[in-house]
Amino acid sequence: MDELIQLIEEWSQNKGLDKAESSKQFLKVAEEVGEVASALARGDEHMLRDGIGDVVVTLIILAQQNDMDLYECLQAAYDEIKGRKGKMIDGVFVKAADL
């Protein structure tokens, strides 16, 4: 995983994406999330795999543009959810604060 992230960051630098405006990069994130939704709606496993990968790529670049990395973002998210209480409602986890 480390090697893949490094290759994506290098690709981003070679394309000048690492210095681009991050609000525009977020539009790419949203576009790719839409492709994931489309794949789920169609039951297309190949498209879903590609879409999830594309979402991760765009997030790696978004983090890079903001002088962050994927690992620190994931760690921050995990630290926030690791002790979270809640329950499943209709197949969706709802945190206790929202119940």
UniProtKB/TrEMBL annotation:
Gene3D superfamilies: MazG-like. It holds the Pfam family MazG. Transmembrane segments: none annotated. Residues 28-85 form the NTP pyrophosphohydrolase MazG-like domain. CDD domains: NTP-PPase_u3. SUPFAM superfamilies: all-alpha NTP pyrophosphatases (SSF101386). This is ArpR.
